[in-house]
Specification:
The chain is mainly β and 154 residues long. The chain has a single domain, classed as Immunoglobulin-like. It is built from 1 helix and 11 strands. The strands form 3 sheets. Strands 1, 4, 5, 6, 10 and 11 form a 6-stranded mixed sheet that branches. The protein is globular, with a radius of gyration of 19 Å. About 7% of the residues have low confidence. This is MD-2-related lipid-recognition domain-containing protein. Keywords: Signal.
């Protein structure tokens, strides 16, 4: 009897893993550090809790994904840190092994954020930028990547 339950549970586990993979598809992954580095040209917050970023990658390439976006500021008594985006996501018309026909470089994107730093705050922004991604299908799309820092006054 226990063997039947084990087989049923194992089968359900396998099918659920297949479903998760097909549902969530692929994700960007860093393969190497490439030169020259990309840049964050500007960033700003809006009062409706959005962070706007203008990203630029080396010539003849496009920003294809971003991830690990967080920002810090001093609120008068302590340093505050907020996470805007954890795992990398595709941007600029790129998804898995498909590239959109209208990719741009530089590229401006926006993210919903949990909190906006007060006006006149000195903000430091941290972003992982991915570009020059492989055109291969699979769960991990390998891209050049670099972790960039950008400081500005809100």
């Amino acid at each position: 009897m226990n063997q039947k339950y084990f087989i049923i549970l194992f089968t359900l586990l396998v099918f659920s893993l297949i479903h998760v993979e097909k549902t969530h598809g692929c994700h960007p992954a860093g393969k190497q550090t490439c030169r020259p580095d990309p840049s964050i040209d500007y960033a700003f917050f809006t009062y409706d809790k959005k962070l706007y970023l203008k990203l630029e990658t080396p010539s003849n390439t496009f920003p294809e994904a971003i991830g690990h976006v967080y920002y810090k500021w001093y609120d008068g008594s302590k340093v505050r840190t907020e996470l805007a985006l954890g795992d990398p996501v595709f941007i600029n018309g790129h998804h898995c092994d498909n590239r959109g026909p209208n990719q741009q470089n530089p590229y401006t994107t926006s993210l919903d954020v949990p909190e906006v730093p007060p006006s006149k705050s000195a903000v430091t922004l941290y972003v992982s930028i991915y570009w020059n991604c492989d055109d291969q299908s699979g769960t991990s799309v390998h891209c050049c990547h670099a972790d960039q820092t950008f400081s500005f006054i809100q």
